[in-house]
Please model this.
Amino acid sequence: MELDPELVRLARETAKSKGIEDRATFIEAHILDVNLADATLVLCYVYPTASEALRPKFESELKSGARVVMESFDIPGWKPVKTADRGGKSFYLYIMPPETTKI
Ligand SMILES: C[S@@+](CC[C@H](N)C(=O)[O-])C[C@H]1O[C@@H](n2cnc3c(N)ncnc32)[C@H](O)[C@@H]1O
Model:
């Protein structure tokens, strides 16, 4: 989900150029307006306040086994199963239901 139509267009174009357009969905929408029940992988690059706000949505909508990858900012209170640094950026992988930690 992305509010900016230009970024959605760019994401679709990039996916097509890499031959993965049939494996990813890019939706122009407010993230809270889209139900995530069918998602198997959610990749987010949002600021910390947004990642905190998304936590209850992920917990209530994502099915068991769905993966969440957060770029740059983790989800407070969730323990990632893996972290990685690529190209100067940090990535956090969670698998639903995530192990929780004290905030
Ligand atoms: C940290 S930037 C990431 C920009 C870009 N997606 C990238 O990967 O470089 C956060 C993005 O979240 C988008 N955004 C902010 N609030 C949103 C919301 N409620 N629903 C969907 N996208 C939102 C902004 O338009 C902005 O592009």
